[in-house]
Amino acid sequence: MKNYCVRDTLFEENGGVRHACDESRILLKKRYSSVVYCPKADERAPGAMYPRVICLEHNGEKNGTLLSTFECYTYDTPVFPIYESTDGARSWHLKSRIEDKEKGLGCRFQPHLYELPVDLGEMKEGTILCAGNIIPDDFSSSCLHIYKSTDGGESWEFMSEIVSGGKALVDPEEEDGNRPVWEPFLTITPDNRLICFYSDERYAAQKGYNQMLAHKVSWDGGYTWSQEKIDIAFPGGVLRPGMPIVAALPDGKFVMVYEMVNQDRIPVYFRISDSIEDWGDADFMGNPVVCEDGSYLTGTPYVTWIPQGGPEGTILVSGRGFSHILANSNGGRGFWEKMECLVPVDNRCTFTGYSQCMLPLDGGKQILNLCPRQISDRLALIEAAVADVYVKA
Q1: In 3-state terms, the chain is what percent helix, strand and coil (to 5)?
Q2: DSSP-derived secondary structure letter, 278
Q3: pLDDT digit string (tens) for 143-190?
């Protein structure tokens, strides 16, 4: 299967640096913001992180409804709360909760929402899925579970365990069998299979991977899963790729972004491939998301694509470190450009801006950005900001 990984994105074939002009042909202008969720003052720190949001497009009269979830920190057994907005992210209310009734450990980390755009096996178009990390309060285990809702997010049902791991702690002394899995991301393949990307630490001693990125696929919408396939992995036990997010591009291509822990300041890289299941050489470092002035993102990335900005549209990447969104209208070639800050964060609070997300609205004419923002030195709320997309003259 042919694979296309963008390489040497900052350099021409003759070795010269690519011209940085028009790296982005769009501008973002913030219109309004709202609070999705605010923890109480005595709640467990850091309150809330890792927001995700979808806009229903396959649910009939419910189309246009926004559903959001996030890590919700509590001294009780954690759940994945589902918040709803029916007015374009101007206001939000609690709709439902996803509970871990199978293990009784808690829906604790890294939830991800996805609406099925087609029928998959017995799963009907419009079914809403949520994958997340089930972890007990002592962090002694980790496993990625998937749940479904067939009523627009009102109620939820357990489907399957995608993959399981050991202690939900980063401990290089642990044996492979007791190391964790993290960060599920769901989407669909071109031949209508469900695919789940995730981070996996379970091959440290056996193959020398500190952490690797992998995926599994499901023919029946998430009830059963294939064997694991490695996508990105570096031998040597140091480099730690993590948090894979994938978006579809024009002409059948896909872009994946990921962080690189244990490099200075945890930079963000990307790959582009014409196959969602083949990302090229596993040990290829990737292409940097970097601006001409040297600005870059520092981990916890998210990526999306909009058709505005020229024949190749525009790739947008967010990340930790500061609250800017970086944009590239050249298919990932050349430098990136900083967009207007939509949710200002205080970088002195390490939990702010952590794994924020973006969602195109109205065919990419607007961008919805959900981001953890500090309310004290120990707590964050989830803020939603909507921006208009303008194309440069």
Answers
A1: 5, 45, 50
A2: B
A3: 999 999 999 999 999 999 999 999 999 887 888 889 999 999 999 999
